[in-house]
Each structure stands twice: as C-alpha cells, then as structure tokens.
Design goal:
By secondary structure, the protein is an all-alpha fold. Helix content is 81%, strand content 0%. The chain starts with a helix and ends with a helix.
C-alpha cells in the first residue's frame, strides 16, 4: 500500500512542480511516465514489501534498479532532445 501511495505522490510532485514554472518549461506527458517508472524501479530495489507485491526476487529487483538507473536518464534525454528539434 505504501508503494502505491508513493507512486501517486510521485505523480503529484511532478505536477505540482510543473505548475510553478512557465508553460514552455512545464513537464510533458512522458515526464510522468519516466518519473513513475523511476519510482517503481527504486521501490523494487529497496523495499521487500514492493518486491513481495509483484513477487520478484532480490536479485531481479537489483537488476531492474540497475537497468533503470542507466536507461531512464537516456530515454529522458532522447525524448526531450527530439522535442526540442521539432
């Protein structure tokens, strides 16, 4: 239940911070997806309860976290660079 609350909190945090900046700097839809994926990977990597919720091993949760740490910033950079070029 805490993991679900954290996921919702992540989305609210992105929205609230996006509302405080000019429209052209506001978070795009993909920011919410990347933020949610990052939170879920983090939760799986550190929380036994989150791992139990989706029934994965400690080893797999570490692999998911490691992949997310390297992959998600690259995805964010690629998507935001493509948006600026358009």
């Amino acid at each position: 239940m805490v993991a679900i609350a954290g996921a919702i909190g992540t989305l609210i945090w992105i929205y609230a911070n996006s509302a405080r900046v000019p429209v052209e700097q506001a978070a795009r839809w993909y920011t919410y997806v990347i933020g949610l994926l990052a939170y879920l990977a983090w939760a799986l990597g550190i929380s036994g309860g989150a791992r139990d919720l989706v029934n994965i091993s400690d080893d797999w949760s570490g692999v998911i976290l490691a992949i997310a740490v390297f992959l998600l910033p690259g995805v964010d950079l690629a998507v935001s660079s493509r948006r600026r070029a358009a």
